[in-house]
Amino acid sequence: MDTTIQILTFLTDIVLPLVLGYILAHKTSVRRYQMEKLLKLNIYFLYPLVISLSTWIVTINKELLWLPIVGLLTPLIGGGIGFVTGKKRFKDPLERGSYTIAYMLSNRGTIGGLVAFIILGEVGYAYNQFSLIFNTITLYMVAYPIASYFSQKSEGNTVKIRLGDILFTKNQIPILGIIVGMSLNFLEIPRPALMGDFFSVLIHIVAWCALIPIGMNIDFKEMSRFKKLIPEISLVKFVFMPLLMVFISRFIVNDEIILKTIVIHSSVPAAINSVIVSKIHNLNIHLTIMVFVSTTAIYVMVVFPILFLIL
Fold it and tell me: How many domains does the chain divide into?
């Protein structure tokens, strides 16, 4: 795909649905609860479908096994930092939960993949995708239970996180997509070419269904309460995490392309999934939207140009 087309796709699949959602909420009679059905459509149907199609064709290369480990360590370390520092900063469990999730989840797939392609070419894009093998597992088996923990805590309930609660709730339905896709992969059943074309269309539908409800929840007045968090979160995401991941990786990896991919992968802004997780579990969505919007803006205006020059 031409770089110009990729950038336009990024804008139309992320910026436009957010803007549309904001306009619908503030300039029309459409109510937020009416658009919640789009999120449910994604969680209960579209996400499992798109995940199964993508994991169906994952190719495992032993020489690249460090990349998925980096992809696993990055959100776990980031989430750990958010969990610890948030304890001192917030008394409200809903705010602390959103803070932790914002630290944990980064836009490694969409922005990370695009930037890897622009700077490193197709090899960089492929390496970045390989680093995301555990991404869905991290999201649904770590981030979701953490969000559930803080949601229960805010209600004064006795917090119980059991294995059954993690694996067998309606919000974990996308895990079925992993099971189906990897089963087809291990059985070496070829994915029909038509399914690839279907995936190319479906991925855009998923983006719009996820982002329009998020756009409807943007409230700049509420977001302004958390603007003081921008410097510290930006330092962690754009400076500390890439330096840490490269430092660790230097002892294991010598390939410069892989190391550059790790820099890109570990220095991306907050993910829209942090907003989605906060929304689903009734955490403080204004905090995660603030982090998502502000870090994305900083990345586009400051971080990406620096990466383009140094890599």
Answer: 1
Q: Which residues, 6+ apart, have CB-to-CB distance to 81 below 8 Å?
A: 103, 236
What value does the CA radius of gyration of the chain take, rounded to a whole number of Å? 19
What span, in angstroms and rounded, lies between the C-alpha atoms of 245 and 264? 10
Tell me the pLDDT band of 57, cut-offs 50, 70 and 90: confident
Helix (H, G, I), strand (E, B) or coil at 187: coil
Task: Write down the mean pLDDT value for the chain.
Answer: 83
Q: What is the pLDDT of residues 60-83, one digit of tens each?
A: 666 678 988 999 999 999 999 999
User: The pTM is what?
Assistant: 0.73
- Whole-number Å distance between alpha carbons of 211 and 275: 9
Residues 243, 232: Cα–Cα separation, whole Å = 16
CATH classification of the domain holding 148? 1.20.1530
The pLDDT score that the predictor gives to residue 204 is 82
Return d(Cα 206, Cα 110) in angstroms, integer: 13
CA proximity to 116, closest of 216, 263, 12, 297: 263
Range of the structural domain that residue 168 is part of = 3-310
Q: Are 183 and 52 in contact (CB under 8 A)?
A: no
Joined together, the tokens standing for residue 75 give 């959100």
Structure tokens given for 111: 């922005």
**How would you class 11 by CB atoms within 10 Å of its CB: exposed for 0-12, middle for 13-18, buried for 19 or more?**
exposed
- 128 close to 261: Cβ distance less than 8 angstroms: yes
End-to-end CA distance of the chain: 21
Residues 6+ apart with CB under 8 A from 212: 17, 18, 20, 21, 24, 35, 38
Other C-beta atoms closer than 10 Å to the C-beta of 161 total: 12
